[in-house]
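COMPLEX REQUEST
Ligand: heme C
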Amino acid sequence: MNDQPKQRKQRFPDHFYNNITYCGVGLSVFILGCEFFLFALDFLTSSSNVYLGIVTYILLPPFLIIGLILIPWGARLKQHQILKGIAQKKFEPIVIDLSLSTHQNAILIFMVGTAIVLTMTAIGCFKAYNYMESDRFCGVTCHQIMKPEYTAYLQSPHARVNCVECHIGSGVGWYVHYKMAGVRMLFKTLDGSYSRPTPAPVDTLRPAKETCEQCHWPGKSFNAIQLNKIYYADDPSKTPPWAVKMLIRIGGGQNGEAGIHAHMYYGDEIYYVPDDAKRQKISWIKTINKSGITKIYTTKSSPYKDADPPESKVRKMDCMDCHNRPTHRFEAPDVSINRALAEGNISPSIPVIKAKAVELLSKEYRSPDEAEKMIRSSLNEYYSKKQSAYYGAHRDNVEQAIKNIILIYRSNFFPDMKSRWDAYPDNIGHMISLGCFRCHDDEHKTKTGESITRKCTSCHIITQQGSGTAVQKDPDGLQFLHPFDSDESWKTSNCSDCHTGG
Ligand code: HEC
Ligand code: HEC
Ligand code: HEC
Ligand code: HEC
Ligand code: HEC
Ligand code: HEC
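STATUS: Structure written out below.
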């Protein structure tokens, strides 16, 4: 046995033997090992995990780079120290001598290492970019904050359109703009200072021309689309449902015939000034038509009756001024319960179920779990005590109704973020929020007395309406009948004065 310790051969130049370089090597090898493992995991698993993505492509790579920088940096410092010790000797650049095996080793490792890092950086950048553009990154990473929008999005007609196609669009400028905004949001998330609910309208939203119109281009719309609505009274077990069929005159076909989309698509421009942050009150409107004729409409109480408003307050009307909830729709209780009754998810045979369900959904709860408990216990108590005959015979109907009301709550109400229908008025239509009636109310007038029309038939025609056997039909249009009570006050007041959705 040879117990003489073997003289180890030095493989690298002297100055690579120092603590900083050791740390650099250790850190790089460790991170590289982790990265290889996570990379493999991400490639092999089909549904990638959000946090795995963040760690692999966003958090770890900077540490690898730090580790790699430490290696030559340590060597450089060491060399500096050695040279400083030798008086008079000037600080010289590293001399590479390929005849020395230590130098050959260092260069070989440097080249192989650089190749690996460059390849990984390229793949990593590509993956990081894709990952940051994914819906899961947007919708789940900030899961609590984005949960309302993400949940609503998943049930919308745009569920297969990526968040970034509406929120960022193409081009480097907007990408950087929104990523910087994302960093600011990240800090707000960390210290909890973000606002609840997330503010809307989104002032920095990219103009619709560069997002929506990439898919929905001018001239594509049909002349009119049919809307079928079924409404239920407070007690659907006593009153049959009221059905309305109407043709919404979208217009905007190839020939540019009049209609709702016509003023958007055929060269007319509309500008307005919102008086409030939610853009629900509008008192100044300017239109410029194709031939350059300008009209200004104001209300009696408008602050801009005599002087034009400052440029900075004026907004050019675009798709989002009507379609502000194309994908994040939080349904009002009245709407979702009508739908559930029509689809049979809640049986219309249950006495006063609409009134009860709407009342329970409109209440404020601290958490979805509390809501679930309260909805379940109140309905069970009410039906077992006050409607015991029905409850005895059709307990499963009540059970099914409870289950579906809770489901409606969980998809449309987010107490953590205070997000629900009344926090986000929908500008399409005019029943629950002012919507079109913000301008179309016959109150906005030019100096010569022209007003923006509130005539019911200018936007849609009702082709069928009524309940049970008393149904009116006319393909040329009917005069609106207020459901259930034929009340006439809709002629003078706004629908949303009485209809709040809850
Ligand atoms: C079809 C286009 C579209 C898609 C897809 C889309 N959004 Fe939006 N989103 C909008 C519009 C339009 C608004 C602005 C509403 C406003 O200004 O009143 C908005 C607003 C928001 C807001 C502000 C709060 C609110 O409710 O108004 C958040 C947060 C949001 N979106 C997150 C997301 C996330 C996360 C995704 C993907 C999971 C997504 N959006 C996908 C169109 C879209
Ligand atoms: C990447 C393409 C894409 C983009 C961008 C996009 N949409 Fe859509 N939009 C669609 C698709 C696909 C549908 C579903 C069509 C269907 O179901 O028939 C749709 C449906 C709609 C509908 C009909 C919804 C309904 O209830 O049936 C409206 C309104 C709409 N989009 C408005 C918008 C607005 C406003 C924007 C911009 C904020 C936008 N879209 C951006 C692809 C897109
Ligand atoms: C003046 C209000 C208004 C403006 C502005 C507006 N829309 Fe619409 N749009 C409507 C109404 C009302 C409907 C009917 C559907 C409904 O009631 O939900 C509709 C329907 C649609 C539909 C579904 C019907 C179809 O033809 O497939 C799409 C898509 C659409 N709009 C896209 C757009 C885009 C893109 C823009 C911007 C260039 C835009 N809209 C601007 C009011 C408007
Ligand atoms: C910001 C104000 C504003 C809002 C909000 C608005 N409009 Fe308009 N709308 C106008 C103005 C102004 C005109 C007149 C256009 C012109 O003279 O060129 C007009 C014209 C129209 C016309 C043509 C009327 C006719 O008889 O010639 C239709 C249809 C229409 N709007 C539908 C709608 C619908 C539907 C909505 C809601 C989804 C809506 N508008 C929301 C301002 C508005
Ligand atoms: C400026 C255009 C415009 C005018 C004026 C207008 N409406 Fe509407 N109305 C709409 C639009 C757009 C919708 C569709 C909303 C939707 O997509 O759900 C609608 C929806 C409705 C609905 C279905 C409501 C719902 O959400 O279930 C009724 C009922 C109705 N209108 C009645 C009337 C009556 C009555 C008048 C006259 C006082 C009138 N409208 C005037 C644009 C208009
Ligand atoms: C003065 C208050 C008032 C005004 C204004 C009003 N409504 Fe109503 N509306 C009611 C009441 C109250 C009911 C409930 C009747 C019942 O269930 O017996 C109702 C019921 C309805 C219903 C059926 C129930 C449901 O599912 O919501 C519809 C649809 C409706 N109204 C549409 C409209 C429209 C559209 C307008 C505007 C053009 C309007 N209402 C204006 C008070 C009003």
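REMARKS: The mean pLDDT is 87. Residues 362 and 502 are 5 Å apart (CA to CA).
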